[in-house]
Write a structure and sequence with these properties.
Elements (H helix, E strand, L loop, with lengths): L2 H15 L13 H9 L4 E10 L5 H11 L2 E7 L8 E5 L6 H8 L5 E12 L2 E2 L2 H4 L21 H6 L9 E6 L37 E3 L15 H11 L17 E6 L6 E2 H18 L3 E6 L1 E2 L5 H12 L3 E5 L22 E7 L18 E4 L3 E9 L2 E10 L1 H18 L5 H10 L2 E2 L11 E2 L6
Parallel strand pairs: 6-8, 6-10, 7-8, 10-12, 12-13, 13-14
Antiparallel strand pairs: 1-3, 1-4, 2-3, 4-9, 4-11, 5-16, 15-16, 17-18
Helix pairs in contact: 1-3, 1-4, 2-4, 7-10, 8-9, 10-11
């Protein structure tokens, strides 16, 4: 152990000793899972630590911890108001051991948990013209024209007159969205509570969040990545691409639905800190303003266990927001090797595996008989993307593969169900989606439903 690391560990231990505690008397959060992630080499921001202070802890308690660690406070992820414990993002001194710090802080009664700032990546690989030419198989049904029995059956729902998701909102936690895309512009949310006037009118800490917020760049530009926001734009088109306009693609919910962007993935991926802020952003919009946010789409993964992110997903659950998540693309079993965020046990999580157009489980798709819920179309999925042309961004289309592409089919189905069942809560919507899954041989024993998405089955 380096001398500086030893000094850091001694300082951290002193924090506990200053409060008259044994270093093993308390256990906060899930230090075992956090340390397992570090030992496995999961990507994280160097030297950064997310610390949740316990409810009722004082400013003096918090200052003792920060000074004892020699840490710099970088950000406040959640304010400690009304006796609630603050969630802070800190940077440790150079050379400090994250593992040693987590071990020591987990014994501090002022701290609920301490964990690295994990880095996440989107879950995709790259490879109404696309509907009519046979390309948009993920939307087809067994009786549609064109047809594919392994599609989401969304076309069957459309044929029954169910094309509108009016009044339903969906959060896209991902890269940004090219909101001027020809096949998306009509279905992008405009914030009625915070017009573009340079003032934080709704008091949520985000000035002029008119279409959502860019947590990676800390701005209101949800397309700050330009043409690099292709992944977030692609999943958006599967959820809510404008249908019936004779152009491009159609989403599961092709009209009426509104998309809100929670951009937290940038060119280097995204962090736990920004993921927490994005999830809480949607929870706040729903709880304070009564917006009918039914679900967030989460086509990303990586990093290790995070109590902070699990708690944020729990707050979304309390607000009645589904958290629909990609199972992952490593082809492994999530029952034996957890993949986050899809493996979190919160009741509002729906974990999605990917199938190909011939009904087989995609070779890359992660699975789990108890930890993954349902299969959905994920290979050769055409959708909306931004394209750079002569120095400008224009509307384009591309085919991608991944559990990232399967997930928005399920998110769109959640919005579709909510629009026709206005009294349904998150548990009702999840039960309807899982309960209507079509039995599928390749998904049998691989997901809890043993089947694939059927958007016409409810």
């Amino acid at each position: 152990m380096k001398q500086q690391t030893v000094r850091h560990a001694v300082l951290a231990t002193a924090v506990v000793a200053s409060l008259g505690l044994s270093s093993v008397a308390f256990a906060g959060g899930r230090p075992d899972a956090v340390l397992a992630g570090l030992n496995a080499g999961r990507a994280h921001e160097t030297g950064e630590l997310i610390v949740k202070f316990r409810d009722g802890s004082t400013a003096t308690d918090q200052d003792i911890v920060r000074r004892g660690l020699g840490a710099q406070k970088l950000d406040t992820l959640r304010q400690g108001r009304g006796g609630k414990g603050e969630i802070a993002l800190m940077r440790l001194p150079a050379g400090a051991s994250l593992a040693d710090t987590v071990r020591v802080l987990s014994a501090n009664p002022s701290i609920e948990y301490a964990e690295p700032n994990w880095i996440y990546q989107h879950a995709a690989t790259s490879n109404d013209t696309y509907y009519t030419n046979g390309s948009l198989w993920g939307m087809y049904g067994d009786a549609s024209a064109p047809a594919n029995q392994y599609g989401s059956q969304a076309a069957e729902a459309w044929a029954a007159g169910h094309t509108s998701c009016s009044g339903v909102l969906v959060g896209v936690i991902d890269e940004g969205i090219y909101f001027n895309h020809t096949d998306l512009a009509a279905n992008i949310w405009t914030n009625p509570h915070d017009p573009a006037d340079g003032v934080d009118n709704d008091g949520n800490g985000y000035v002029d969040d008119i279409r959502g917020w860019d947590f990676d760049g800390n701005s209101n530009n949800i397309n700050s990545g330009g043409a690099n926001d292709d992944h977030g734009t692609h999943v958006s088109g599967t959820i809510a691409g404008v249908g019936g306009n004779g152009t491009g693609v159609a989403g599961v919910c092709w009209s009426g639905v509104k998309l809100i962007s929670g951009r937290f993935l940038g060119r280097r991926g995204g962090t736990t800190a920004n993921a927490i802020k994005a999830v809480d952003y949607f929870t706040d919009l729903k709880t304070r303003h009564g917006l009918n946010i039914v679900a967030t789409n989460n086509s990303w993964g990586g990093g290790g266990f995070s109590q902070g992110l699990q708690d944020a997903i729990g707050r979304a659950n309390n607000a009645g927001i589904l958290f629909i998540a990609a199972a992952g693309n490593s082809g492994t079993n999530n029952d034996t090797s957890a993949s986050y965020p899809s493996n979190y046990p919160n009741a509002n999580v729906v974990a999605v595996a990917a199938i190909a157009s011939n009904g087989t489980l995609a070779s890359y798709s992660q699975y789990g008989a108890t930890t993954v819920d349902i299969c959905a179309p994920g290979s050769g999925v055409y959708s909306t993307v931004p394209v750079s042309s002569k120095g400008s961004i224009v509307s384009g289309y591309a085919s991608y593969n991944g559990t990232s592409m399967a997930t928005p089919h399920v998110t769109g189905a959640a919005a579709l169900y909510a629009s026709s069942h206005p009294g349904a809560n998150a548990a009702d919507i999840k039960a309807a989606i899982l309960g209507s899954a079509t039995p599928t041989a390749s998904c049998n024993g691989k997901v809890s439903t043993n089947g694939r998405l059927n958007a016409s089955g409810f």
